[in-house]
């Protein structure tokens, strides 16, 4: 029973490119044409870079050509500020490699999501912590902006709160401010509970806001905004159907010493499994999303890591040992 087929039947799209790559590569048993993966290991993190090189790779992976960097670390969930700073430095170095920046570039940081829903509040919390400096380049003496880059921040809310499509608000701001780059931060949906608040993805292809809570909205990318868009996403929820499927898999794997049960498992068609899971989730329209009870603290920790990394990556004169003092 192939996961990719079951997820397609359930209408689940994996937000993390590294998860999609692991599943597809495992099913075909070889490298995916048009896709390259590199891996780097650090003391408290593993960084995996998925590069979709051409349209063939894009079609197989189900996402646009570009670079998808995933930083994996279970220590993100722990309340360890020293380790969080190390993770922030790793993320900052990766951002420096990816972001198309000049010394005089203006950057717009956009915190996507609903600040009233904790699993979806990552973007607004990052914006709340981030340091806005664009006004200094208009109204402050030159000595006050030494080592800084022009940065402005925006938390546009969600359609249900504002009545305006998020992409429309951002496009209006882009047209007025004319930044050289947009960085979007959003909550994502994970393909397994292990990845919730333990992975950060940086994508050069933009983002579709609302994916972390099962919504579909207008894409925010270079095509729609007119400037490069880099997305930073963190899985904060997982579809309940995925948890149900993983539980069934573990049950059958545990009982695989009984040949009859093995035959039953392999005889199950993805359609049948999907129908059983949908029956359980029917009261929620098949769209039940699950998040940990410690989500408040985990979102705060993750937002601080991302805000630190952005400060170090965007401001060339920012002392790494003092970066925390510049967070709001």
UniProtKB/TrEMBL annotation:
Native species: Thermanaerosceptrum fracticalcis
Protein name per the record: Germination protease
Principal EC category: hydrolase
Assigned protein family: Belongs to the peptidase A25 family.
UniProt KW keywords: Hydrolase, Protease, Zymogen
Catalytic activity field: Endopeptidase action with P4 Glu or Asp, P1 preferably Glu > Asp, P1' hydrophobic and P2' Ala
Keyword field contains Glycoprotein: no
GO molecular function: metalloendopeptidase activity
Enzyme Commission code(s) on record: 3.4.24.78
Its job: Initiates the rapid degradation of small, acid-soluble proteins during spore germination.
